[in-house]
Amino acid sequence: MAAEGELAATSSLSTTRVFKKASPNGKITTYLGRRDFIDYGSNIDPVDGVVLIDPEYLKDRKVYANILAAFRYGREDLDVLGLTFRKDLFGTTVQVYPPVSENERPLTQLQTRLMKKLGSNAYPFYFEIPQDAPSSVTLQPAPEETGKPCGVDYELKTYVGDTDQEKAHKRNSVRLAIRKLTYAADESAPQPRAEVSKDFVMSSGKLRAEASLDKEKYYHGENISVNLTIDNNSGKKVRKVHISGECSSLLIWCRLCSCFGSLISVHSQLSSL
Questions:
Q1: pTM score, two decimals?
Q2: For residue 209, which of 165, 159, 243 has the smallest C-alpha distance?
Q3: Cα separation, 67 vs 65, whole angstroms
Q4: Spatial distance between the Cα atoms of 91 and 165, rounded to a whole number of angstroms
């Protein structure tokens, strides 16, 4: 069975928490310092880690690391006759072992610590996520739905093969789910506000409604408070108030060809008397 957990790499100054996962046959093990990588607008956290290998098991084969971002827009149980509701958005592969000269770069602090701790059979890998790659998005499935949820997901895979195009076997590969998140700085901004008025044919006067939020940006888990003011100068009665929210995400499906986006919307509605 594959082992997945955390490893504490200690030094005289600090302790670094590391994610560790081994292949089912235990011949390669992947180490990552984090599984959430932040897009700050000007730069994105690099995906850096280390693979611990068993040279006797590999013989003349190689070890590769791959990152794949994909967009699933349909349930897995609808995948029939080779048609899948899944679109690959971004993917790249690097050779980890034997090391390739064009892939060599200065080691990060995490890689230096891990390679010192793991020994000579540990080899580093490094990825840079493109600026136009979409952030991770998960659409909450309905209670009766099964399988992977719709949205954008990222996966880091390390595997053994003769070439980078070879299909990875489950027994000698490691898969880790990672996320690309967008950093939103808490900057002061005007409170969002909207106003609407309505005339009635058979009634004099107007009905005016004004809605405002206490701030512009909200983080996951925060409550969104809506301040609503209704000024009713008409002869009509206000019986219900509907409040709805929409979350949209623009996904770029390809980068160097004719590109188009997909808009995902999630609606929630609250009705009150």
A1: 0.71
A2: 243
A3: 7
A4: 12
| pLDDT tens by residue, 132-188 | 888 888 877 777 777 777 788 899 999 998 888 888 888 999 999 999 988 877 777
Q: Measuring CA to CA, which residue among 142, 139, 166, 133 is closest to residue 43?
A: 133
- The dihedral over CA atoms of 137, 252, 48, 165, expressed in degrees to the nearest 10, equals 110
Amino acid identity for residue 191 in this structure: Q
Distance CA 97, CA 118 (A): 15
Comparing CA positions, the residue from 102, 84, 108, 104 lying closest to residue 18 is: 108
What pLDDT is recorded for position 130? 87
Reading the block at residue 258, the tokens are 């004719």
Distances in Å between the Cα of 45 and the Cα atoms of 3, 22, 68 are 26, 24, 16
Query: How far, in Å, are 40, 97, 183, 194 from residue 55 at the CA level?
Result: 39, 10, 40, 65
